[in-house]
Input
Amino acid sequence: MNSFTPGPQTARDFRDALGRFATGVTVVTVDTPTGPMGITANSFASVSLDPPLVLWCPAKVSHRHDALVAPDHFALHVMGQDQRDIAHGFSKSGDIFAQCDWKTGPHNVPLINGCPARFECTTQHRIDGGDHTILLARVSRVTTTDTPPLVFLGGTFGAFNA
Output
C-alpha cells in the first residue's frame, strides 16, 4: 500500500489515484461566437433532483476553457460505447461536428444524437475550483436512449459488463 500527501511533488501519483475511479464519458457542447464547440469531459456529477442540477468542471489550462464557460447554455452528452471515436475526437479538437450526427437545439446549442443520455442545461453559477472552473447548471431537458454508455478508467475508454 502506498500513502502520500497530495502536492506538487506527487501530482502524477495523485492523478493516477484519481484514475482508479471509473467514470462515464461525456462531451459538453456550446455555441460560441465562432460556431459550435465541444470537449470531452469526465468531470460531471449530479447535484440535485429538486431542482434538477448537475455540474461539470473544465480545466483552466485548456485553450477551450474561456469559450466553454462563457455561454449561459450548454448540453452535456453521456457518450455511448459506439461513440468512442467522437469522444476521442472532442478530446483533441473542439470542432469535430462533421464526424457526428447532431442538430442545433434551443439557444443554438449543438445536440449530439444517439447518446445514452443528454442534458440540456442553463448555467446557474461559475465557481473557482482551483485549476478548474465548476459550472453548476439547471437541467431544462433530458433525452435518453437504450445505448450502452462508454466508461473511462485508468486513462482508457471501455465498457461495463454486469
Notes: The chain has a mean pLDDT of 94. The longest helix spans residues 84-92. The helical segments are 11-18, 65-69, 84-92. The two ends are 28 Å apart (CA to CA).
